[in-house]
Automatic annotation (TrEMBL):
Record protein name field: Porin
Signal peptide limits: 1-24
A Pfam family it matches: Porin_O_P
InterPro entries, A to Z: Porin_dom_sf (IPR023614), Porin_O/P (IPR010870)
Domain of life: Bacteria
Keywords on record: Coiled coil, Signal
Coiled coil: 31-58
Record flagged with keyword Coiled coil: yes
Record flagged with keyword Zinc: no
């Protein structure tokens, strides 16, 4: 190697070494900064650990206090009777109505001009669970009850109901009979007219309740059924009017039970069709020398389409041709009515109703009565109603009562 070449190589090595040294010197401050950052993060981690330890101690203190409080609550609860959880599952409701009647008998000097708080009713129900419930209805009629008073205190419903299958249930106790339009649904805002229609009152006879067992259910598209075995009517010797046979389950005679079945269809909007049949082997509950059986047949329709409504019902009792029935001509007790109505608005509605039924008042059969009712309902809200109607009667038997005039009423439900 020549001196010139050696000089060049030496110079190149010196310059390379200087470059590496400069680079290392330039990187040294960056490494020191990184080390300082790592130390700072370690200090922050130690601070967080210390704070977490403090919070854990605080949590343990709070937990101990909560345990002490829970123990105190248990001790207090053990020193007093258990509190019932019924409040959320118990319901209270009811309805009432007051009537003013201004009627004159066209065949005599008789009249009916009176003001009467006809019914005050309270409902009490309780749901034990989603499948089992209790329902009751207690009623005071005509404001005062007791010896010499015009009214009564009546237990009209008190039964337990249990759903044993979807859409099928059984109930036991005291309940309203599944018959007609009004017997089960008779709250004042639900019907037209101050008084309940005379056909269901005298023939069915609403309101009618018995004690026993019932099976109910729904099936198909809008069909439902009811089947009951209950206490029956109990006429006394010399009586023949079906309404007089209601025992109201007050030590009711039960020599002859009653068997009732109903089929109802509500599958079309605004429509209800229903038929009911009942059979009772002895209407006089073994009071006479021979048994006198009785059969009830009832059919009805209720239809609401738009503002127009229509209700119609037919009911008939066929009583065995025995001593009392033949003698008094009361072996057939029938009645029917038809009632068109028009809902003018949410608040106003008008109706007309034509009724015919057997009038069995007095010592013998008085023949039929025809009654025309025309009136108006005003709903202050859906659960409060004021009513006015005019009635005119015509009796088949000469001299029988024919009460003409008007009625006013107010009713509510909740």
């Amino acid at each position: 190697m020549t001196k010139s070449s050696l000089y060049k190589a030496s110079t190149f090595l010196l310059l390379s070494a200087a470059s590496v040294g400069a680079t290392a010197a330039a990187q040294t401050p960056n490494l020191e900064e990184m080390w300082e950052l790592i130390q700072q993060q370690q200090q922050e981690i130690e601070a967080l650990k210390a704070e977490a330890a403090i919070r854990e101690n605080q949590f343990l203190v709070v937990e101990e206090r909560l345990d002490d409080t829970a123990d105190a609550v248990v001790q207090v609860a053990e020193m007093r009777p258990p509190i019932s959880n019924a409040g959320g599952n118990t319901t209270l409701g009811g309805y009432g109505e007051m009537h003013y009647n201004n009627l004159e008998d066209q065949n005599s000097d008789g009249e009916k001009t009176e003001l009467d708080f006809h019914r005050f009713v309270l409902y009490l129900g309780h749901e034990f669970n989603e499948n089992t419930r209790f329902f009751s209805e207690l009623e005071l009629e005509h404001s005062l009850s007791g010896d010499g008073k015009p009214g009564e205190v009546e237990l009209e419903q008190a039964y337990v109901e249990h759903d044993y299958l979807n859409n099928h249930s059984v109930k036991a106790g005291l309940f309203l009979m599944p018959v007609g339009l009004m017997n089960e649904t008779h709250e004042p805002p639900t019907f037209y007219g101050v008084e309940r229609n005379p056909v269901e009152k005298n023939i069915i006879p609403a309101t009618w309740w018995e004690g026993g067992l019932a099976v109910t259910g729904r099936f198909g598209q809008g069909f439902s059924y009811d089947a009951t075995v209950t206490s029956g009517l109990g006429l006394e010797d010399g009586e023949y009017k079906i309404r007089d046979g209601r025992q109201k389950l007050a030590k009711a005679k039960a020599e002859a039970l009653a068997y009732t079945g109903r089929l109802k269809y509500t599958g079309a909007a605004g429509l209800e069709l229903g038929v009911t049949a009942q059979y009772q082997e002895d209407l006089y509950q073994d009071m006479l020398a021979e048994t006198i059986d009785a059969t009830l047949l009832e059919a009805h329709v209720s239809w609401q389409t738009g503002n127009f409504g229509l209700r119609a019902l037919y009911a008939r009792w066929d009583i065995d041709d025995a001593i009392n029935a033949i003698k008094l001509g009361a072996s057939e007790q029938t009645g029917w009515f038809i009632e068109p109505s028009w809902r003018i608005s949410d608040s106003w509605g008008v109706f007309a109703r034509y009724n015919e039924w057997n009038n069995l008042d007095g010592a013998s059969v008085d023949g039929g009565i025809a009654q025309l009712d025309l009136g108006v309902n005003y709903w202050l809200n859906p659960n409060v109603v004021f009513k006015l109607d005019f009635q005119k009667q015509e009796a088949e038997k000469r001299g029988a009562k024919e009460l003409d005039g008007f009625n006013l009423g107010v009713g509510y439900q909740f």
